[in-house]
TrEMBL record:
This is Glycosyltransferase family 29 protein. Its EC number is 2.4.-.-. Its main location: membrane. It is found in: Endomembrane system; Membrane. Pfam families: Glyco_transf_29. It is a single-pass membrane protein. It comes from the Bacteria. Keywords: Glycoprotein, Glycosyltransferase, Membrane, Transferase, Transmembrane, Transmembrane helix. GO terms for molecular function: glycosyltransferase activity. InterPro entries: Glyco_trans_29 (IPR001675), GT29-like_sf (IPR038578).
Length: 205
């Protein structure tokens, strides 16, 4: 599909055509199998930590949206996968240098050609988004979508960094919890239940 064809398919919401740009979910699951995964959220509190070395030591480092990395000591430097729900500018893309882009949002109109045409591009199925939205009784965050996806894999460990469910707000924006459509209380409880039932999942504070 060329760029014009992509723009047309995106405009008319041709989901089947857009999905043909994506690697199958099974390919991600195969790559996650046996891996120690670090999923790095964008909570401001992470900037006061010294988790960077542990993050970079993971087999697979996954970041979210604009992936702020103010200090290597707190955030590390690697980005193997980037879960997106926003468009990336050229400078942001060059700074983050993701090895693979995962478009997690149900909002296909935000998906850009450069991301959709990147190596190993993955488009998260709308059905998976809808199922988690039902479970959380609210639109899920990009982080929650990634946690749910990774938790279904045969990874050996998932370490969550920079997840305080908006208690310290986000490094990537200035909005407060009442200005976003997510239910952070429900997401926090959901993650706690995941950890209770799956000890591979660790919430690092």
């Amino acid at each position: 599909m060329n760029r014009l064809g992509f723009l047309v398919r995106r405009t008319i919401r041709d989901e089947a055509a857009l999905q043909r740009l994506s690697v199958p979910q099974s390919e991600l699951m195969a790559e996650l199998a046996g891996k120690d995964v670090a999923l790095v959220g964008n909570a401001r509190a992470l900037a006061g930590s010294r988790h960077g070395q542990a993050i970079d030591a993971a087999d697979l480092v996954i970041r979210i949206n604009r992936a702020p990395m103010p200090h290597p000591e707190s955030h590390g430097t690697r980005t193997d996968w980037l879960g997106l729900a926003v468009a990336l500018g050229r400078e942001e893309r060059a700074r983050i240098r993701p090895g693979r882009i995962l478009w997690m949002s149900h909002k296909r109109k935000r998906l850009d050609w450069q991301s959709a045409n990147s190596p190993g591009f993955y488009l998260h199925p709308l059905a998976d988004y809808a199922a988690l939205k039902t479970d959380l009784h609210a639109p899920p965050t990009t982080g929650a979508l990634l946690i749910e996806l990774i938790s279904r894999s045969k990874m050996t460990r998932l370490r969550l960094y920079g997840f305080d469910f908006f208690a310290s707000l986000s490094l990537s924006g200035s909005r407060t919890a009442d200005k976003v459509p997510h239910d952070f209380g429900n997401e926090a409880e959901w993650v706690a239940n995941l950890h209770k039932n799956d000890k591979r999942i660790m919430h690092i504070r």
